[in-house]
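ENTRY TYPE: paired fold submission
RECORD: A
CONTENT: sequence, then structure tokens
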Amino acid sequence: MKNIVEELKEKIIACDYKVNFEEALSLYSFEDAGQLFSAANQIRMAKCPRETSVCSIINAKQGNCGEDCKYCAQSCRWKTPCKPSGLIGLEEAVEKCRKALDFKVPRLSLVTAGRALIGKDFLHLLECFRAISKQCPGLKTCASLGIISYQQMLDLKAAGVVRYHHNLETSREFFPNICTTHTWQERMDTLLAARKAGLELCCGGIIGLGESRSDRIKLALELRSIDPESIPINVLSPIKGTPLENAEALGKEEILRTIAVFRFILPHSTLRMAAGRKSLGANGRDAFLSGANALISGDLLTVSGTTNEDDLAMLKELGFAIQDLVR
């Protein structure tokens, strides 16, 4: 008799079976972790292209955020090592995008701190995106500017932006435990506005916030309902001065189990390893043998990341091709 891992793996590969909440919980607690990881990797190989997607980010405005996200170093409510900086200049933005192309990173996102980028700051960033589109042909640009309006989404698309990033972070039920200055639904509405405007979506979450396995499954099921083109998986890197600075770190096996369960729930999706990948050791290599198939390369806002050269070498060793590689 087949166990639940083998049974669900075969059903997903054969007919795109949709795993439900109870089945996902059973997968999470399956005794043989190695078999779970291997099955998730087989689903990835069967349902996703061989190519992996590599992207990077630019911290276009840092700190002084008025929101109270308990994990975030950029909130002005916490005393953290994060030093605020003004909005990035046009020439600097273009130069960083050129460097991304030099490092063979084909997709880059401009990220700003704060609830929403509005007014003159938003207009300035539109100019940056227009300049990048003209001066960095072949580079796909993304934006992560907070809870902005549908009209702003249309403006971004007109300026050459391809994809909008905005994480749901965790389940709807757990979200009030990590943020009270805006709601989970506001985040979802932002994503729906981006989709309506014709932008691709990059949306995932953070694990290790104190949430339960059930919360992670609920997040994955919500993500399945909106089908983002990219799903970043972040592992909390506790920042001194934030309310979560002493949060208990997730073990390697728990992180890999989460990636594997996400792959069972989201068989066709791009699961992108983001912050906290280094906590797995070996550049996060095992994540790509447990269902993940993409990554963010380079530094990640307020925590250090990995080098582009090391990432590309690791992916090549694992047999991945690089999607949209500029040659």
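RECORD: B
CONTENT: sequence, then structure tokens
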Amino acid sequence: MSKIIVIPCSGIGKAFGTIGREAAQIVVDEARPGVTDTVCLSALVMGDEETRSRVHGRRCITIDGCPVGCARKNVELAGGTVAKALRVVDVYKDHRDLKPRTVTELDEAGRALARILAQTITEEVDRIVEAE
């Protein structure tokens, strides 16, 4: 079984981008380290051949910080399979009490949103693995 690639948006300078990256790292490093991996979206966007080959034909979970959907769109362009496309804003809509106050360094509310999103991603990873 090939690893599921979890790809967060770059969203540098945006709270939701930072939350997405933090959630991806929680999944890849702690929750499902043997089953998941991640790549740098910027490398994928720039056409880095090694990154494109890691995504091509693989199941991916994308995490976008805004409606533009850069992670999802670039995975599709690279020939990856978007098994699930998630948006940080959708998690925030369900937890409006957790409004991040900072952008570059997450406060407690931002870290809480990242943990909630990481749980959602982990559940999707498990669903994909069980379906095999």
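NOTES ON RECORD B: Helices lie at 15-31, 41-45, 49-55, 70-77, 88-94, 108-131. Residues 4-131 form a domain with the Rossmann fold fold (CATH 3.40.50).
STATUS: closed
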